[in-house]
Amino acid sequence: MHTSEVNVPNYQLLIKQLLFTPLAYNPNQEIIYKNHFRMTYETFHKRVCKLANVLIELGVKKGDTVAIMDYDSHRYLECYFAIPMIGAVMHMINVRLSSEQILYTIDHAQDDVIFINSEFLPIIEQIRGRIDTVRHYVLMNEGNDEVQTILPLAGEYEELLRNASGEFDFPDFDENTRATTFYTTGTTGMPKGVYFSHRQLTLHTIAALNSFGTHTGHANFHQQDVYMPITPMFHVHAWGFPYMATFMGIKQVYPGKYIPDLLLELVEKEGVTCSHCVPTIMHMILNTPKIDSIDLSRWKVIIGGASMSPAQALSAMKKGIDIYVGYGMSETCPILSLAQLTPESLEKSDEEQSEIRTKTGKPLGLVDMKILNDDMHEVVHDGQSTGEIVVRAPWLTAGYLKDQKNSENLWRSGYLHTGDIANCDEEGYFKITDREKDIIKVGGEWVSSLELEDIIHHHPSVSEVAVIAIPDEKWGERPLALVVPKTDDKKTLEKEIIFHAKEVIKNGLMARESMLLKVHFVESIDKTSVGKMDKKTMREKYRNLFA
Fold first, then answer.
1. Nearest Cα to 304, choosing from 242, 259, 241?
2. How far apart (Å, rounded) are the C-alpha atoms in residues 357 and 303?
3. What is the spatial distance between Cα 425 and Cα 444, in angstroms, rounded to a whole number?
4. 149 exposure class (CB count in 10 Å sphere: 0-12, 13-18, 19+)
5. pLDDT in tens, 303-352
6. Active-site residue 441, yes or no?
């Protein structure tokens, strides 16, 4: 007996599935923007449809690129869905780049339309005459005041939505269609564009939620949480959390600008339980007086983008914050690993926990993460042997946009090369010891800038610290600690920092070459546009400090 095959439609992994097939159907759940705007998920769905109709009216078609210049807002969340769901590409412009870099990314991405917050109009007005591809500008007006601009506006965001239909039939198309593009800040030359497909973003959402949802005790993300990003939505899809939060149908709070007191006010008022940020933002929050008047015992915060010292983790834990590290890069969508603790580890002291919470963590499901030495052999998992982290996962960028050479270098040997130097212990926790380009080579021996930073950060009179390499005639390089002090007695503090570092070295916890440490006090640490330490700029600025 012969049977015929049934013609089953091919179900594509598209971003619209995250919106229209959520884990929880919560039409009355809220999405909030600061203290200005509240809407239900039912309204959000209609506004996404309205935005799709606006895009079509503007002539946006499949494959076109629509750029966003906005703070973290409900509008940005609507763009996260409506733009890719009609088959267009969302370009998240890094508003903290220089005007020349922004011009480069607009032209390189070939933006057709730009949605722009009124506060960023001066940037585009400055470079408008050199923008070749943009057909329309749409204003996102924060207030009711009339905005004056030389840009030819196609309209104001809310007015355009008000006049649009709340129904839209989103099409099916190939799940490998490009959905998003954004640009890395880079360390040399102009920013590099990375891009991700519907399939990659959907798989990243599902895999990350699996790792959060199957973890108990702490460091999880579930349907009873209230989510608020403290990482810019232009930076790696706000680490993918807006897609996860929407897929779960949970309450979301968008804070606009990052003002520490406002962030804490929203945490308290809206009952925020889950956020993510870089260490510099957490440093700001921990140092605002308002923090002492708020109960933060339900707040889980994931730290990424740069290393967090155990000392900073301890400071957050003392405030009741469930803080831990997540690891990823612009090129990886981004989450690759999480430093979640086992039930046994949660029984340890805060000091012991802080050492685990600040590790790079264990890989998510579907992530193939290895540490390779210079001979491209995997190192043993003994917590000591180091090499470069290389990775494979179904959501990593295929390369850099219009850049074959750097794309091939990124993916040499069939793995994505992170440039991060790390070890892995017997329990499977990875720990980054330095960036490949930030390792300090003293007399042929490697000295970890991150380990030195951690030692110095433990001093109670140190507010912030960055350790970089500076040239040395005898040793080739030596470590320089750039310290933001909490005290005016800098001479005593310098002696205490060096003495403490030497004691740690004498106990065999650091390479003896670290004893060549120099200390220099600064008012602030140079940061990149996404809040990471800008060690490239620091190396250039201080290379001749002791020449």
1. 241
2. 10
3. 25
4. middle
5. 998 888 898 999 999 999 999 999 999 999 999 999 999 999 999 999 99
6. yes
Q: Give yes or no: 30 in active site.
A: no
Chain length of the chain: 547
528 given a catalytic annotation = no
Q: Which of 441, 502, 532, 536 is catalytic?
A: 441
Q: Find out whether 257 and 218 touch, Cβ atoms under 8 Å.
A: no
Cis amide linkage into residue 334, ω under 30° from 0: yes
Given the residues 177, 180, 184, 386, select the one marked as catalytic.
Answer: 184
Residue type at position 253: V
Neighbours of 35 (CB within 10 A): 13
Q: Catalytic site residue 331?
A: yes
Q: Of the listed 331, 453, 464, 513, which one is catalytic?
A: 331
Helix (H, G, I), strand (E, B) or coil at 238: helix
Structure tokens that stand for 232 in this block: 């810019």
Task: Give pTM, 2 decimals.
Answer: 0.85
Q: Sign (positive/negative) of CA torsion 141, 147, 152, 158?
A: positive
Catalytic pick among 158, 446, 475, 537: 446
Place of tokens 């308290």: 268
Tens-place pLDDT, residues 62-105:
999 999 999 999 999 999 999 999 999 999 999 988 898 899 99
Domains in the chain: ranges and CATH = 15-197 (3.40.50.12780), 258-365 (3.40.50.980), 440-542 (3.30.300.30)
Q: Residue 384 CA to chain centroid, in angstroms? A: 28
